[in-house]
Design brief:
Largest sheet: 3 strands, antiparallel
Radius of gyration: 21 Å
Number of helices: 15
Strand content: 5-15%
Number of strands: 17
Oligomer: single chain
Shape: globular
Strand order of the largest sheet: 5-6-7
CATH class: Mainly Alpha
Amino acid sequence: MISNQFDWTKGRPLQKNFISSAVEDLIKRSEAVINDKELFQLFTNTFPNTLDTTVFYYDTDEGHDTYVITGDIDAMWLRDSSAQVWPYLPLAVKDKPLQNLIAGVINRQARYIRLDPYANAFNFADYGSIWEDDITQMLPQLHERKWEVDSLCYHIRLAYHYWQQTKDVSIFIPSWLESAKIIYTTFRQQQLLDGNYHYTFARNTTVATDTLPNGGRGNPVNPVGLIASAFRPSDDATILPFLIPSNFFARTSLFQMAEIARQVYNEQVFASDCERLASEVDRALHDYAIVKHPKYGDIFAYEIDGFGGQILMDDANVPSLISLPYLGCVDIGSEIYQNTRNFILSKDNPWYFWGNQLSGVGSIHTGVNRVWPIALAMQALTSNNKAEILQCIWQLSKTHAGTYFMHEAINKDDVSDYSRPWFAWANSLFAELIIKYYNL
């Protein structure tokens, strides 16, 4: 297993896992721009946190290879690892070692997908996990096998934007195309058009959101062209399997995968297949995902079943409905998106909490009255209102409880009551917000 024991000083470890000259230069430049000492210290700690403590880079005979833990969990989530390194992408073109590290993340993710496209989290090697008794097709290389549509989308997003920003096509070897075709096939299977369940999951647990009903199949759906997701990006079971934010993300990812297939591999047929599937998902989103709300007008549902069942809410984890413009899925000025946003940031969203010290979106993953910094950062990243953005940044700057790091979930009335002191995704997203706001 990977060991992470650090001697800390002023928030950063004395022994760092990886040092990027471009990241260090940006931090130095930020000191002249961020004139709030507390905010500057937060940024200084959070921006390099993924590199400082969670990445393990190897230059092997097979190419670049990077294992990325989430922080306090020694496992690599496809979603988290992509999001953790995302803010470094703009710097990669002028920092070759950093570019190689991100290429290594993509390479390892692609190997994981070829191993099992239905898994959400993986081990460094084949040493099993605490979830190896789950009733599904577990392998010793898997940490957890919760099928989440967004896991595959995050890999495509990272690979596509890495290519766009660096112009490096070295990651697009024949085996990456194999991974892409596996992603396409998995999405097709999870439309459930053939009536077959290619994935089932059950866990012996007292936590209802950690397992699936209906013999591990999840609740039934009417196959209308959307892709069924067994679990949300929070790793909690969906109630209605057509998770709308993830389907928006899949549509965008399929178009990106088609562009790579056509321009890099000259795979015209596969590109057309991806575009056709994306169009099917797009049409189903248009026909089934929009709900007439009595107060807010037309809004996007969070989950549906294709029979008319719908769940109106949003969750802190990304993809969420509020994050759709951030992920390139909808225009931020869309009337339906703005209506949805107004609903999400109100007491009509059962997972929005107002508190004495903090207000924002939470998650069933951590229970009621707990706000996620990830949600506050995403609210700011998808806003054009400067006052709203500053309010989110101010709230975030007061959540660290003396640690000068972001956390997973925080009691809305007591910021000293938080979960996960070492949660690198939250640190990266907060840093991304600060970089965007200060134009660093």
